[in-house]
Structures are given as C-alpha cells and as structure tokens.
Design goal:
With 725 residues, this protein is an alpha/beta fold. 39% of the residues lie in helices and 18% in strands. A hairpin with a 5-residue loop joins strand 19 and strand 20 (644-646). The structure holds zinc ion. Zinc ion is lined by residues 559, 561-562, 564, 608, 610-611, 613.
Length: 725
C-alpha cells in the first residue's frame, strides 16, 4: 500500500521536474540542480519498483538529462572558480588564526548527525574552526546569539525546499555572505534553530538548509557532513548563559512544527502582558510560606511559641476563610474514608515526629533566609538552629516581612514546552485543576514528607502553585525547569526529549510523590483477603497520595457452567478501560464502559478452574472509593495486518456521575491528537469561577464547552468525589 502511493507520487514528481527543467534553460544553475533531482528521483523509483520497467519508460528522458548534466557541470565549475578569484581580488579576507587540532579527535567529537550543547561548548572553548549557522528570525538572532566569532544568521524565512547553497549565498549580505562563501573552509558546519532536536528536524526548515549543503552543493569539498545542535539555542542558553550575548531573552517559542502538522490553526497566543515568572523569587517566597510563618506582627525570630507546630497549624487553619482553601481532611495517620483497617506504624512517638519536623522547619527557614540574603546583597550567614537565631536576629524589616497569603485560584497559567514535554505539561495542568491537590500543596505540607531529601514534591508544589496564578486578562507562563530537572534525574529517559506517554508519566510521578511522603503500613500477623491485596499492591507503604487516588474493588467470579464462585480484590490508583473498536462503531458512553467493566459478563481467555469452560462472569463492587478517580482510556486496536493503531472513536462522557456510593465531578481531561507514535498532548480543565479552559503548553484559552470536539481524542479523565452528596 505504502509503496503504491510512493510510486504514484514519484511518477508525478518526475513529470513536474521534467517540465521545470525544460522551462529553466535560461538559468543554468537551477537547471543543473533540477537535473540532479530528476536523476535522484529516477534512482529512487528504480529501488521501489521494477528497474527494467522504469528504465524502458524513462530511457529517452534520462539520457537527455544525463547529457545536460555533462554539459552544465564544467560550465558551472568554471563560473564558480572565476567568481572565487574575483571575490578574493576584491577584498582580501583576513584569515583568523585557529588552534590546530588533530583531525581524528575532531571526528570523534562530531560523530553522528547531531551534537549536544556540551560538545559545542567544548568546540567553542577549544577554539575549533567550526561555523555556527543560526536560522532563527533576524530579530531574535540580533537580540541574543551564541558568543562566537564564526557565527552567521541565515534567517528561516529565506529557506525553501530544494534551495542550493549558492542561492542562499545570493540572499545573504555583508559578513554573513563572505563567511557563507567560504563555508567549506571550516572544519564543520553546525546548524541550529530555537529548539532544534532529532525529534523536530524532519519537519523543520533546518532540513532545507542542511540539504542545501549536503545535496545541492556538490562542487564544494566539505571536511565532514554538517551537524545539528540538539536542543537548539534554547538549551544552549539554559546550559551556558555566559556564552550568549544576552541572557534576558523574553520571546517564547512553542512547538510550531507539531502544530503545523496537526493543523492547530485556531490557537490563541499568550497575551502580550503574559510573562515568564521569576522562578528564583517565587521559590524563596513560597519556601518561607511553606515553612509556615504565622501572620502576626512579631519579628521573624523563632520563638518557643512559634516552634509549637500544633499551634502554628491551628493559627494557619483559622486564618483561612476562603472556602476553596479549606485544608483537606486527609492525614498521614489514616484517612476519613473507609480504608482497610491497617494502621500506620506508631513506633515513632508523636514528640519525636514533632522534633523532626521542627528541625527540618528551621533548616528550611535558614536556607531560605540565606538565599534571600544573598540576593539582597548581604553576606551574613545565619547560624543553624533556633539558639543562633535568638542571638542573631535576621535583618528583615517589618514592612517587608513575608506574610502568609491566601492565594486566590486563577489558573490561567501556561507551561513552556521544554523538550517535547507536552505529556508532562498536560499531566501537571490536569492535576492543578483538582482543588484538593491545590489545597494541600498551597498549605504547609512539610509534615507529610518522609524521604530525606524529598525528590520531587517541592518542585511539584512550586509548579502547582505557579499554575494557580493568572487570570483571563492577565495570563501567565511558567517554565518548569527545576521540576523537569528532577524528573530527568529520577529517570534519565525523560532527558532524551522523546514524546512520552502522558499517563505513564502520571504513574511515574505518582510513585515518586508517594515515595516522598510514604510511611510503613503496619503488617498484621493475620490479614483478611482485601487487606492482603491492599498491602501487597502498595508494597507495605502508604501516604496521603494513596488516600487520594487509590480504589479497591471486590471481584466475584462466577462460572456460568458449574456455578463455582471465587472472590478476589483489585487495588489500583487508576481505572483503565479499553475503548472497543469495531468497523462502523461511531461512539461509546464512558458510563457504559465503566458499567460493563464492573459487571463483566464474560471474562476473555479465562477458564474455570473446575470445569475448564470459558464462561466465567466477574462482578466488581467498590470497597474503597477514591477521592480522585482517574480514568485512563486504552485507545488502540490491532488492524487486519496485526498493526497497532490508534482508536479515535468518540467517547461520550458525563460531567458528573455516580460511582460506588458517591457522586463524582469532572475537573480535567487530557487529550491526545495524532497517531500511536507521533502526536501532541493538551487538555481541558476547570479554573477560576468554574470556567473551562483549554491548556496547550504555553497557551491557555477559554473552552466554550464544545464537548463534541474532544470526545474522539480524550485519553484520561480526572473526576473528584463530591463532598455534599
Ligand atoms: Zn466451571
């Protein structure tokens, strides 16, 4: 099938090329290039189809084209040689001294089609004779570029497919033209754009400029094939800010290539006043808040009254009047909902825990003060411990003292796509729409933390807090750099910048958030079945994250032939549902999928252990209701060629439905557009004043509840249990 299409396309291409060649007789250069392309297409066609057939069909045309190439080549070579002499006579270009380095080492430095920012940094540092070609728009290039002598701007708006290096030269001016002219005198050419990477180059203009050298510049002798800077200017700027002309780059680029592919034309761009938040200031302010400074007129000294954590918590609770900010009734010591009767180990006495928390609190406070002091220009280093503080009161003036703020939830904040991180951004946005998660992370959550040091919860909280900011008329954009760095540290696979699965990432994040806060479940000597399932699935560890997300089903399997009954339990933090695929099937209802899952009339591939018949039903009932019900849709099926394909069937969903004994309300939905391998994640959720918005990396806009438009792409739903039901 694929080959038939290619053959057809190639044959059409040949026709077009031949017509173009006969028209281009006046422009020898263009004619020559078109001829080479023609021969290349013929060669490809031979590889695809029957070589004999192709040769017979095109033999006449091919011999004419080959003749043309033979005559044109020496003419052009002569012309280029003359041009070069002329230019050298006109202005003698001073050649800059370069540090000679053995060629072999350079080859090993630039193996492959891409180089990392680190390799480029090394090359710049060693003063290697490389030429950097930056294809960002001229405005952005002049605002900030890599600090290096051999760098030119070939703006992307002049780049078109099939462009030759000589035509590029004509379009350039001044120094850029001079440098480009002697392009083959450099050791290697390094191309870059804003976020060039192996993922997006195939559909970017970098491909055209690279091809101009590798395919349309046959008269030049390059020392080695050109390379592309992986991560682009963006990553270089992030990694080596001292090596760019200006670090205060305020333009934000989104992944245009993917949008182009998906034809997302109806997007709103961030408002002009939308600004990237200052991460540093934000974290310090928030860190101080998170160590819970009571809102009183006392000085920032740590007094004995303040160190009493129970009292501080109380004062924090009473100071919050906003109904949205009420602290959730979820604690580490068990939950208010009906969970199996396993108790958290009480080996650590309460006072020990209090002391530990207090120690951590003072440590964090001192760190925050030191950081702040450094920023303010002070050099004073605070002594550790409350005693030191008592003798050395920090020089914080009353009027600038940070106050505990009740943060109003706006929610109009986008997230910068760092490295194809739309999957990560979508999960973060879906989670920030859930009030109970916001409330926990906006309050003092330090007492939940059990892992020292915590791996990701602090960075996660910073993102969730940032995402709570912004209004419809004052949109914000946040760069989740520290969070992403932590994620990459926890699993380097995320560093590669591939398109990852959104819900796989959710489970990964969940596990690490849980590990940051987990304590041991007490193992009873005798456990009933459902306790065993609960304990086993959680591997003996629990936290408030488990209380929020986990459900448990009791499953009763009944054989329809011999009536054998068996009970078992299912414990999980997401409800995975397969979306059925049948030719002709247009849509299904989510509620129906859930009901069918709960009342499974025939388990596939499951044999009765007694009569070995495959007629076993499975009835599930909810034993533990989750606070947050995450439903993941498995949207794939095998086609007739056993290929896995994406299932785009519409899934009708309700904004609220009954599950177990409770009612659940929809707060956010994750979407996936594209195929199994290539696509883009974005989502929808509830923000301020119950308004639905669409979030798509940096962009955030009002969603007019056109539910039909997202039924075919929805891949995960985040429902929350309604309190007053
Ligand atoms: Zn049976």
């Amino acid at each position: 099938m694929q080959e038939v299409i290619n053959l057809h396309l190639a044959e059409n291409g040949i026709k077009t090329l031949y017509t173009e060649i006969s028209k281009a007789t006046m422009d020898q250069e263009k004619c020559f290039i078109l001829c080479l392309r023609y021969l290349d297409v013929i060669e490809r066609l031979c590889k695809l189809g029957d070589r004999n057939f192709v040769t017979i069909k095109y033999s006449h045309e091919v011999s004419r084209i080959q003749d043309k190439v033979k005559t044109l080549k020496p003419i052009l070579e002569q012309r280029y040689e003359q041009d070069r002499h002329k230019k050298q006579k006109e202005h003698i270009i001073p050649t800059r001294p370069t540090v000679p380095t053995p060629i072999t080492e350079n080859y090993s430095l630039f193996a492959g089609e891409y180089i990392s920012v680190k390799q480029l940094y090394k090359a710049i540092n060693e003063n290697l004779n490389v030429l950097i070609i930056d294809i960002r728009p001229t405005g952005e290039y002049s605002q900030s570029k890599i600090l290096f002598k051999n760098i030119i701007n070939v703006p992307e708006d002049i780049l078109v497919p099939g462009l030759s290096a000589n035509v590029i030269e004509k379009k350039l001016e001044g120094d850029a033209q001079t440098i480009w002219h002697k392009r083959d005198s450099y050791l290697i050419l390094v191309f870059l754009d804003w976020n060039s990477s192996s993922e997006n180059v195939p559909c970017s203009k970098l491909n055209f400029v690279r091809a101009s050298v590798t395919e349309w510049d046959i008269l030049r002798n390059y020392k080695q094939p050109p390379v592309i800077l992986n991560g682009g200017f963006k990553e270089f700027l992030d990694s080596y800010p001292s090596l760019v002309t200006n670090v205060h780059v305020n333009f934000i680029r989104h992944n245009e290539d993917i949008d182009e592919l998906l034809e997302l034309e109806d997007i709103t761009y961030p408002a002009e006043n939308a600004q990237v938040m200052q991460l540093k200031q934000f974290t310090i302010q928030e860190l101080e808040d998170s160590v819970n400074i009571p809102d009183s007129d006392e000085d920032m000294e740590v007094t004995s009254k303040e160190s009493d954590s129970s009292e501080t918590n109380e004062s924090a609770n009473t100071s919050e009047n906003d109904s949205d900010m009420i602290l959730p009734k979820v604690t580490n010591k068990g939950s208010t909902i009906d969970k199996p009767s396993l108790n958290v180990s009480k080996e650590e006495s309460l006072s020990q825990i209090k002391n530990k928390i207090e120690e951590e609190r003072i440590k964090l406070l001192n760190e925050a003060r030191n950081k702040k002091n450094k920023i303010l220009g002070g050099k004073e280093d605070f002594k550790k411990g409350s005693q030191g503080d008592a003798f050395d009161p920090p020089p914080v003036r009353r009027e600038t003292k940070p106050r505990r703020q009740i943060v109003a939830f706006g929610g109009w904040c986008g997230l910068v796509n760092l490295k194809n991180t739309c999957y990560m951004n979508t999960v973060l946005q879906c989670l920030k729409c859930i009030p109970i998660i916001r409330n926990i992370l906006h309050s003092n959550f330090a007492h939940y933390i059990t892992r020292r040091p915590p791996q990701v919860i602090n960075e996660f909280a910073v993102v969730i807090r940032a995402l709570s900011d912004g209004t419809e008329y004052d949109k914000k954009i946040f760069r989740p750099n520290s969070f992403y760095d932590k994620i990459c540290k926890l699993d380097p696979i995320y560093k590669k910048g591939h398109h990852e699965d959104c819900m796989e990432f959710f489970l990964f994040l969940f596990n690490h958030l849980n590990d940051d806060c987990a304590c041991d479940l007490k193992k009873k000597s005798i456990m009933i079945e459902r306790e065993k399932s609960w304990y086993g699935h959680l591997q003996g560890r629990t936290s408030f994250w488990v209380d929020l997300f986990y459900h448990q089903f009791q499953c009763t399997k009944v054989c329809q032939v011999c009536d054998l009954k068996a009970d078992s339990y299912e414990t999980d933090n997401t409800l995975m549902l397969s979306v059925p695929y049948r030719p002709g099937l247009r849509s299904v209802n989510l509620k129906q999928l859930i009901d069918e899952y709960m009342e499974d009339n025939q388990i596939l591939d499951y044999k009765c252990s007694r009569c070995h018949q495959m007629k076993v039903t499975n009835r599930r009932s909810v034993v533990v209701e989750p606070e947050i019900l995450v439903i993941v849709l498995k949207r794939y099926y095998q086609d007739e060629y056993q290929e896995t394909r994406k299932n785009n069937i519409c899934v009708n969903f309700d904004l609220s439905f009954k599950f177990g004994g409770s009612r659940y309300k929809l707060y956010s939905v994750a979407q996936h557009r594209g195929t199994m391998d290539h696509g883009h994640y974005y989502g929808h959720g509830i923000v301020q004043d119950n308004v639905w918005v669409e979030f798509n990396d940096e962009r955030i806009k009002k969603f007019e509840k056109d539910w039909d438009s997202i039924r075919g792409s929805a891949c995960a739903f985040f429902y929350c249990k309604e309190k007053n039901y």
